[in-house]
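Hello again, I could really use a second opinion on something today. I've dropped the whole record in just underneath, so have a look.
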Amino acid sequence: MVETVALSDLQLTLMRVLWKRQSATTAQVAQEMRALRPIAHTTVATLLTRLEKRGLVAAERQGRELVYSARVSESSVRQSMVSSMLSNLFDGQASALLSHLIRREEIQPADLQRIRDLLASQDTKKSKGTGHD
C-alpha cells in the first residue's frame, strides 16, 4: 500500500494528464490543463516540481526539456484518497458514506443497479469460500 496520498484538485488534474499521456513535458501538461482551466506555465512547472519532490512523479531530462511521468497509479491514489476520506469524514464506515451519497441523491439509478450487482457478486464469492479477504 502506498503511503497516504492527498492531492488538491489542481494536482489531481495534473496527475490525470500524466496518467492519460504516460509522459509529458511541462509545456504539454500546461497546454492540456489550459484546455480545462486558466493556468500559467510557471504554476504547472511548480506543481510538477513539488510532485516530483513528493515522489509522485519522475522527471527525465530529454535534451533541454524535462519529461515527467507518474510514479503512482491512478487506482492507488484513488484508494488512498478514498480511504482517507472514509476514515476522516465517516469514521471508517463505508455504509455511512454510501448512505450519505444515496440520501443526497448523488447516485443515479443505473449506478445503484451496478452497486447491487457488485454486492451480489461479492456475496457469491464469499459463499463459494474463495478464502480471499
Summary: The first helix runs from residue 9 to 21. Helices lie at 9-21, 26-34, 41-53, 74-90, 94-103, 109-127. The first strand starts at residue 23 and ends at 25.
